[in-house]
C-alpha cells in the first residue's frame, strides 16, 4: 500500500508537537537549500511522504539540540541517502589533552553590557582570516560575499583580518537563514544602527572635544544606554 502524502499544512501540524517554532516559511527555506525534495502534485502543491517528514524531523532536531550549520546537516543527509550512518551526536566528546578555547561560532548569552564589562573586563581581540571566518561562523562563501556586498562585514582597517563584530554578524546571518532572512534584512538592521550611532555621536560631541578619559567614558555610557533602550523597545513591540 502506498504511503499517504500530506500537504505542507498537515506536515506543519505534525512537526509543531515537537518543534513549536517551526513555520511554513522555514520548511520552504530548507527545501530551497536542497535539504529535502517533496513531490509536486499536478496542481503544483507540495506533497510530503513519511520519509520527507522523518527527514525534516532530523534536520530540526540537530539544529535545535546541536546547533549544526546547514553545511554539516547536508553532509549528514548525504550519508543517510547513501545508506551510511551519520555521526552519533549524542556520544560524549573526547577529553582534550590541553585546554580548548570555547568556539566562537555561537552567540554568547545576553548580559547587560555595563555589568559584563565590570565582571569580565575587556574581551580578547579576534583576528580571523577569510577562510577562518567562514569555518568558524559556519556560513558559506556565497553568504559572506552577500554580506560584504551589503557592506555588513569587512576586514578591519588596513588589515586582511576580520574581528569580533564580523564574526558576530556572520553567526547571526547563519541563524537568521533558518527563518528566511538574508543579507537584505540585515541591511535594514544596519540602517537602524546607523541612525542610532548618529544619535550617540551628537550626544557625546561636547565631551569628545575635550579629548580626555571622560569623553571615552561618556561615549561608552551613552552607547550602552541606547543599546538597552533599543532591546527593551524591541521586546515591548514584539510582545504586543
From TrEMBL:
Gene3D superfamilies: 1.10.1660.10
Keywords: DNA-binding
Domain of life: Bacteria
SUPFAM superfamilies from the UniProt entry: Putative DNA-binding domain
Any one GO molecular function term: DNA-binding transcription factor activity
Domain annotation HTH merR-type: ranges: 21-79
Transmembrane segments: none
Protein name: MerR-like DNA binding protein
Taxonomic path: Bacteria, Bacillati, Actinomycetota, Actinomycetes, Propionibacteriales
